[in-house]
Amino acid sequence: MTAPQDLWLVVGLGNPGPSYSGHRHNVGYLVADELASRMGSPFRAHKSGRADVVEGRLTPPGAPGPRVVLVRGRGYMNESGGPVSAVAKFYGVKPDHVVAIHDELDIPFGTLRVKFGGGDNGHNGLRSLRSSLGTGDFYRVRAGIGRPPGRQPVADFVLSNYSSTERAELPFQVGDAADAVVTLVTEGLDKTQSRFNS
């Protein structure tokens, strides 16, 4: 089954389950949830059994816009690639129509960067995606979480909850990241970068 060129796979990277839900590492899930809410559909199990998906459009009813499949893997972050590649194969979506939403240490909290391609920068979810897709040539919506304070290990930092100050700001970052995804799939990378790469 080959996908029409207007079909996009939008992947929120994170870890499943309530114990991880407030962690910095799970911002990709939060953005995917926001997009699902805008599409007016809950996530449901994909036939592969390895992911939950929502199908629809990110544009208002009746407005033109590409079809989108939102994806949240059911496995852990470092195993994200398998579920995503299974869903991509099912829908016939090539890597250049995949958008990964993830946390980024090298960007200050509250800011975004959108880009195409690149390495994994030590991010286990991206490493798994690149390995399973066979390429790093997919889009990334990178939500800044900043660096850990003092000497806190990176692994502990990304798997910890946002501070109370950050939690107050988080809905704005999540909303901006969701807007960036919509702009990316409807208007392209250049316009998205000029609008959102703070």
What can you see in these coordinates?
It contains six helices and seven strands. 39% of the residues are buried. It is globular. It has helices at 27-39, 81-91, 124-133, 154-158, 164-187, 189-196; strands spanning 7-12, 44-45, 51-57, 67-73, 98-104, 112-116, 139-144. The protein has a single domain (7-196), classed as 3-Layer(aba) Sandwich (Rossmann fold), CATH 3.40.50. Strands 2-3-4-1-5-7-6 form a seven-stranded mixed sheet, with helices on both faces. Strand 2 (44-45) and strand 3 (51-57) form a beta hairpin. It is of the alpha/beta class and 198 residues long. Monomer. Its EC number is 3.1.1.29. Pfam families: Pept_tRNA_hydro.
Beta-strand fraction estimate? 15-25%
CATH topology: Rossmann fold
Major beta sheet, strand line-up: 2-3-4-1-5-7-6
Radius of gyration: 16 Å
- Helical fraction equals 25-40%
Shape: globular
Counting DSSP E segments of at least 2 residues, the number of strands comes to: 7
- What class, by secondary structure content? alpha/beta
Could you tell me how far the N terminus lies from the C terminus, measured between alpha carbons in angstroms? 39 Å
Q: What do we call the CATH homologous superfamily?
A: Peptidyl-tRNA hydrolase
CATH class (first level) name: Alpha Beta
Elements, N to C (H/E): EHEEEHEEHEHHH
Mean pLDDT across residues: 93
Q: How many individual domains? A: 1
How many helices? The count is 6
Largest sheet: 7 strands, mixed
Runs in which pLDDT lies below 50 for 5 or more consecutive residues are none
In the CATH classification, which architecture applies? 3-Layer(aba) Sandwich
